[in-house]
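Section 5.1 Outputs to date
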Amino acid sequence: MESEQTYLQVELLGQGPVTEVWKAFELDKGRHVALKIPRQSEDGIDFARKLLAHEALVSQSIQHRALPRILDFETNGPEPFLCMKLLAGENLESRKKSGIPWTLMELIDSVSSIAEGLETLHRAGWVHGDVQPGNIFLESNGNTRLIDLGGVHLPNQHPYVETPMESELVGSADYWAPEICRSNGVGGPPADLFALGILIFEILSGQRPWSSGSLRETIKRHHGDPSAPLTSSWCRIPRRLKHLVESMLARIPDARPTAGLVADELGVLAIRLMERGVAA
């Protein structure tokens, strides 16, 4: 299948060093989709092909409403691509900047979805490796997805081995767990839970548990400095939620809960809040 004969590119949605994502119209089926293709560079086409093939491989091994849905792909032909469901909404980074207030139930529902998606990834043997606001997508229909499978990797293995990016840092250092501060950003499933814990902390308090700085300063803070106290100006943080976040930010990986346990704990908390009549 050749993408230029099947898809009409409409609008550039975003781009990375090697690939770019377009809103496109699928001519055969008469629908809008998201099309991920190599950037216009002859030098990077082979590497882009490997990245797209890897992402397609990961996608084929998982299926969950909180993860990307790939509708079609071609990685062997002259024009490699991934065709994905086009999402309506905004990512968490945009939501943070908008200033739109959260409710406690909305936060719990969104984070629970991401935890369930991570559980699916981890059970399939993968680590997401880049849990951060830009990769959390809040859909207009109320669903929340963890997007961008390009950096997904096997536990403690760099996703870009034997490629031009094998020395690149993986993920965002602001969300790195202590154990991956020494390993070029590569860790195991507990590192994803540490990053998710930072996200919950950030939504509740309006700041991350450790302030940003240079890469060296960030690594030092995550590895040895105590976190800021977890407080919130917009809600009364339930004790159960506070303890959960603290456990997710444990310095020892094995002391952190699994993604499944986080989802279960948030489910229990949601039921208790609804019983108390907390607004959604």
